[in-house]
Amino acid sequence: MNFIDPHIHMISRTTDDYQRMAYSQCAAVSEPAFWAGFDRGTAAGFHDYFRQLTDYEPKRAALFHIRHYCWLCINAKEAENVSLSREVIAMIPEFLKKPNVLGIGEIGLNKNTRNEATIFQEHLDLAVKTNELILIHTPHLEDKYKGTRMIVDMLKNDRRVNPARVCVDHVEEHTVRLALDNGFWCGMTLYPTTKCTPARAADIIEMVGTDRIMANSAGDWGVSDPLAIPQLIQELKRRGHPESTIKKIVYDNPLAFWRQANNWVEWPTETAAAGKSLAGSKS
Question: How far is CA 173 from CA 180, 207, 228, 234, in A?
């Protein structure tokens, strides 16, 4: 079955991973701006990173007929440095017209600190002023519910924010309704230790249904699997869910969310139907 991975950090993956994803029928990915495995010290480092996300990585993905999209921000793990964060936010508009940019993200909270909240709100201000989609990072483990509640409250307190243009990622059983009940999209991350297993994600789907929900691997520097979505597909098949239900979660929903992006160019009908990417097209 064709699938989309709407949250995966491909700069941390080998080219072999693209090949395996292509063999598993991955049609497209989106890569949120993230931590580099260490704290970057200058805005120039982020400028080069944004060039990599918008210029180089789409070409590497296209070698395997996978469309590559991205999101731009300074991640919450580095938001404690407020002055650096503001330098990075100031240069994001330079990249927003790049054809593979979907919006601002993944912004959010890591340790639920005052500085993180300040930088989250400044990213949010940029996103609403430029009418960009927003991708949200929610904290890990014991900080997740508190952080998700803080994020939802900040989003709701800004009347300019349209919930239908926001995806709250890394939801789990105790946070998924915070996203859905407030009109946001949500993402379940299939990550082996700090987030959901495929079985837990299947449980969540059976609990809340298939509207405004998607799945991703968040493959990054840590122990993670870029083929986690095919594992979820197999788990849902094993439980007897129809192909139409599975396709909605792993393909139709992320595509529907992405179609709201300012730079969106619709895939040719025959390409979308086949779940393939045209390497030479605008991506």
Answer: 12, 9, 18, 20
- pLDDT attached to residue 234: 98
pLDDT in tens, 149-167: 999 999 999 999 999 999 9
- Rounded distance, CA 94 to CA 54, Å? 11
Which three-class secondary structure string do you get for the chain? CCEEECCCCHHHCCHHHHHHHHHCCEEEEEECCCCCCCCCCCHHHHHHHHHHHHHHHHHHHHCCCCEEEEEECCCHHHCCCHHHHHHHHHHHHHHCCCCCEEEEEEEECCCCCHHHHHHHHHHHHHHHHHCCEEEEECCCHHHHHHHHHHHHHHHHHCCCCCHHHEEECCCCCCCHHHHHCCCCEEEEEECCCCCECHHHHHHHHHHHCCCCEEEECCCCCCCCCCCHHHHHHHHHHHCCCCHHHHHHHHHHHHHHHHCCCCCCCCCCHHHHHHCCCCCCCCC
Integer Rg of the chain from CA: 17
Domains of the chain: 3-265 (3.20.20.140)
pLDDT at res. 111: 93
pLDDT means per 10 residues in the chain (283 residues)? 97 96 98 91 96 98 98 95 97 98 97 96 98 96 93 97 98 97 98 87 98 96 93 98 98 98 88 42 39
The whole-number pLDDT of residue 267 equals 93
Rounded distance, CA 228 to CA 208, Å? 21
Distance of CA 86 to CAs 24, 47, 118, 200, 228, Å?
40, 13, 10, 38, 35
Q: Residue 204: CB partners within 8 Å, gap ≥ 6?
A: 171, 172, 173, 176, 188, 196, 213
